[in-house]
Specification:
By secondary structure, this protein is mainly α. The chain is built from 9 helices and 2 strands. It is globular, with a radius of gyration of 21 Å.
């Protein structure tokens, strides 16, 4: 008996798992949540690329990247400590699932942490339109949107919009939000991360 799995047996196992989970949902049962991240199943249905990367160096430790991104939301001291320990974290990203990618800069930006964002930019983080919006960099945001108008509909980590980030722009918030609203109006509920 062969130990290799055939495409048919793989598809049978996957289909059985999906049907089992769906029947649990139909009965009102909540699906079991994995204790650790699980990579989505994948089978190429296209030709394999001709180029094959040579993995010369180890990747950043996933737990360390996760911790860094979490701390960058709210803890300046731990953000500094982890960056001092591993400077390459500056542009590390986490996929929280279903393509919800977030860097330390993204987390600090949607939390309105100007102090942490300033540190990350000083250390070499790659600024994006969400960060520029939260930092009140009106000319940069206007340039981004002039170059690529479709960015008005883009979403950052966790689905937060440019308008959401504009609410956190400090003294520039009203100007930034008015500009974005002039391009595309959105109903704006109060931002939960604004310091009241």
């Amino acid at each position: 008996m062969s130990d290799s799995i055939t495409r048919r047996s793989f598809n049978t196992v996957v289909a059985g798992s999906v049907l089992s989970a769906a029947s649990g949902l139909a009965l009102g049962q909540e699906p079991a949540k994995p204790a650790v991240p699980v990579e989505a199943p994948f089978v190429r249905d296209y030709p394999e690329p001709d180029f094959h990367p040579r993995w010369k160096k180890p990747q950043l430790n996933r737990t360390m990247v996760e911790d860094f991104v979490i701390y960058a939301h709210s803890d300046l001291d731990m953000t500094k400590k982890l960056l001092d320990k591993e400077p390459l974290l500056i542009n590390g990203f986490m996929d929280w699932g279903a393509g919800d990618w977030e860097s330390g800069l993204g987390g600090a930006s949607h939390m309105g942490r100007h102090d942490i964002v300033s540190l990350l930019l000083e250390r070499g983080a790659r600024i994006d339109i969400f960060c520029a919006t939260m930092m009140g960099q009106y000319d940069a945001v206007k340039s981004f949107l002039t170059l690529q108008p479709a960015l008005i509909d883009s979403h950052g980590p966790h689905g937060f919009t440019l308008h959401f980030h504009a609410q956190l722009a400090g003294p520039e918030a009203d100007k930034m939000l008015a500009y974005l609203q002039s391009i595309k109006h959105r109903d704006m509920p109060p931002n939960p991360f604004l310091k009241g």
